[in-house]
Amino acid sequence: MRKRASFARLRQGDRIDHFDTVRLRKDGTALDISLSISPVRDSAGKVIGASKIARDVTGRKRVERELHESEQRFRTLADALDTQVQFRTQELRRRNAEILQQSNQLRDLSGRLMRSQDEERRRIARELHDSAGQNLAALGMNLTQIESDAKRDPARLSKSIKDAQDLIQVLTQEIRTTSYLLHPPTLDESGLSSALRWYTDGLAERSGLNIDLNIPDDLERLDPELELTIFRLVQECLTNIHRHSGSKTAAIRIACEPDKIYVEVQDHGKGMSQERFAEVQSQGVGVGIRGMRERVRQSHGELTIDSNALGTKVTAIFPAKTPAATEPGTISRHGVA
């Protein structure tokens, strides 16, 4: 069409400048040509032919094509950059939202922990007042009776002294138990195995819970902070089992590998409701589980919990380069209600 239009213009006597076309060399390679065509007239002014001037514009065409391709690549890169910027912006917004949420959760946890500490102090104060305080009052009355008996009836003196000694033993045991629950000296003196056996034996006796404790006989001493983390983890899990799960049994397993320490606590209770389990998954739960997560996080580990109609299982995995290394813990979800 363009060629026909050009011939029509020539017949009308018009000059054609820069008519681009392609010619083939003798060797078959393509050559870009720019033609300038002028009409040739006779003496009467009639167009009787045409003269052509051909210019080789192969180099210019190549530069134009390269420029066009470069522009296309630039547009593609610009579009890709824009997409990446949008993606990064969305990612930053998401992370900022997560950080804000975590900050709010941290403030909430801090408040809950303070309230929990206050409640625990009130509980300890009540126990000391109701139990130890009453025993001390009874002991005071016994001492008064001893003083009176010593003056009036020396024969009754021996029985009064025996009653006072019994009260002292009961009081000593109650204070020792309260002290051990706050921080068991056995943990520092004899290690994790002894402390857990003492605690589980005492809890089983007090609560009627059947506790199966499986600890390697050759478990070596761990870093004190790691031992305390594992003890508190087991303590919190067993407390949850006793209070919430309805399970009559609890199984604790501790296993060691060259680079890891595993802790599992499992019950066979009613499990968590879907709503509570969803809260556990989102880490938006109460002080107990949050406290476990935070202890494990401080030990550079993870906490996971699994729960269904067959019960709940909590598993902790603590990296440990050596048996005495205090590498933090990872908890695996399965455990306590």
Description:
By secondary structure, the chain is an alpha+beta fold. It has three domains: 2-56, PAS domain (Beta-Lactamase), CATH 3.30.450.20; 108-177; 187-333, Histidine kinase-like ATPase, C-terminal domain (Heat Shock Protein 90, 2-Layer Sandwich), CATH 3.30.565. It is built from eight helices and nine strands. The strands form two sheets. Strands 4, 5, 6, 7, 8 and 9 form a six-stranded mixed beta sheet that branches. Strands 1-2-3 form a three-stranded antiparallel beta sheet, with helices on both faces.
Which regions contain 5 or more consecutive residues with pLDDT less than 50?
Answer: 322-337
- Report the end-to-end length measured between terminal Cα atoms: 84 Å
Give the structural class.
alpha+beta
Helix content: 55-70%
SSE run: HEEEHHHHEHEEHHEEE
Oligomer: single chain
**What does the radius of gyration come to?**
44 Å
User: What amount of the residues lies in strands?
Assistant: 15-25%
Number of strands: 9
CATH top level of the largest domain is: Alpha Beta
Number of domains: 3
Q: At the fourth CATH level, what is the homologous superfamily of the largest domain?
A: Histidine kinase-like ATPase, C-terminal domain
| Main sheet characteristics | 6 strands, mixed
CATH architecture of the largest domain: 2-Layer Sandwich
Mean pLDDT over the full residue set: 78
Q: Treating each run of at least 4 consecutive H or I residues as one helix, how many helices?
A: 8
- CATH topology name of the largest domain, in short, is Heat Shock Protein 90
- The shape is rod-shaped
